[in-house]
Automatic annotation (TrEMBL):
Keyword annotations from UniProtKB, A to Z: Signal
The keyword Signal is annotated on this UniProt entry: yes
Signal peptide, first to last residue: 1-20
Protein name: F-box domain-containing protein
């Protein structure tokens, strides 16, 4: 059973249509949900709560009813696993929110019962309180933290190699918070997250590139990876100091950076032979060095040619590619595309496309059909291409089969 708690529910609590005063009817509902499994086997227990707002819509004041409801919910859910989703936003008219502080404190005292946990908290915490620490308990399967302005500690010190006994069950980790601290095991090489399938994170002062590689080394079975490394003040890693990392099952990779060196570090370190979708977004200038790193990354670990089906490369620098690099960039791009025999979708931005490459790609996408590739296609650029989008400096196009538009 899921309880969704919103400001609308707050209004109902004191509505004349509800005869039971205060929260009695909600507490009764909680007790009923807890007793349902024993009364009717197969019915769910009360273990899922979503709180989207903690204020009354009438006067913008913090509403204590929410806290009483959460206390009743936790108290009446016995030891059942908890699925928690909190969206706590601060309004400009109220600088402090003691109710939100107390809700977080209450929820965090029971985190050993968490099964899934999602937090979006856009407000400043009471400075007298200690930072909230999220521990990686054996029972938790999903953690999502997005808390601008709220300092949170993610403690992974217990996620260590245990010879298959009591391995951490975490399957999804989504961390997009600039004000957050990471805690790793004392022995970095003992960090172990064998069940993790989806990972999203951003680098910051606490999680630099070296820590990022430590985290990735502990996740051999991830399927989807999303990295945001756009913070220009985040510490970097000296070239050549990271050991190679094999992610054999990764099928989707997305990275956003503001520095060419940062994206090159990741591309030069990771090996992803099963990659099918790749999105590379950067606010830097696309250089031949970067294109060569992309080519090596996509081909690394492949026996014949990469399995990649979708590729997005987008540079959004206001300066553009320097004229003296035009020739080298076009050669590097041709070599890159020449290896992608399984590519079906391609999007390019901020690069230079010479006329032969541009014409070949557009012709391929326009004439594409479902027939199998023949041996004569081996010398063609992207023989299976069916979708092509270009925001290149000199060539702009968006087409799908025979529907296209070209701007020069």
């Amino acid at each position: 059973m899921m309880i969704v708690f919103t400001t609308y529910l707050l209004m109902l609590l004191h509505s004349p249509l509800i005869h039971a005063p205060g929260l009695r009817w909600i507490v009764a509902l909680c007790r009923l949900a807890v007793s349902l499994p024993s009364l009717a086997p197969g019915t769910p227990s009360l273990r899922h709560i979503q709180i989207y707002e903690v204020r009354s819509t009438s006067n913008n004041e913090p509403h204590p009813s929410v806290l009483r409801f959460v206390e009743a919910w936790i108290g009446n859910s016995a030891t059942a696993p908890l699925d928690v989703s909190l969206n706590l936003s601060q309004r400009e008219t109220i600088p402090e929110d003691p109710i939100a502080d107390e809700i977080l404190s209450l929820i965090f005292t029971h985190q050993d019962r968490w099964r899934t946990y999602s937090l979006f908290a856009n407000f400043e915490l009471n400075e007298e309180l200690d930072p909230f620490a999220v521990r990686c308990w054996d029972s938790v399967k999903s953690v999502s933290l997005c808390s601008p302005g709220l300092f949170v500690v993610l403690d992974l010190s217990s996620a260590v190699i245990s010879n298959g006994i009591g391995a951490v069950q975490l399957q999804e980790l989504n961390v997009l918070s600039w004000d957050m601290d990471w805690v790793f095991p004392a022995g970095r090489n003992t960090l172990h997250l064998p069940n993790l399938r989806k990972l999203s994170f951003n680098t910051n002062f606490s999680l630099d590139l070296g820590d990022s590689f430590t985290l990735l080394s502990a996740c051999p079975n991830i399927l989807r990876l999303d990295i945001d490394s756009r913070d220009p003040l985040a510490p970097t890693l000296k070239s050549g100091t990271a050991l190679p990392i094999l992610l054999p099952h990764l099928i989707e990779f997305r990275i956003m950076t503001s520095d060419e060196a940062v994206i090159n570090h990741f591309l030069d370190t990771l090996t992803c032979p099963s990659l099918a979708n790749c999105h590379l977004l950067s606010s830097a200038v696309g250089t031949p060095r970067n294109l060569r790193s992309i080519s090596s990354f996509l081909c690394r670990g492949s026996v014949t040619h990469p399995r990649l089906a979708c590729l997005v490369i987008r540079y959004e620098s206001v300066n553009g590619v320097p004229f003296q690099l035009y020739h080298d960039c076009t050669l590097a791009l041709r070599r890159l595309l020449g290896a992608l025999k399984s590519l079906e979708r391609l999007s390019l931005g901020g690069l230079i496309l010479d006329e032969p490459v541009f014409n070949e790609l557009t012709t391929r996408a326009i004439t594409h059909d479902s027939r199998e590739r023949t041996s004569g296609d081996d010398d063609l650029l992207c023989p299976l291409l069916s979708h092509f989008h270009s925001m290149a400096t000199n060539k702009r196009i968006s087409l799908q089969n025979d529907e296209f538009d070209i701007e020069e």
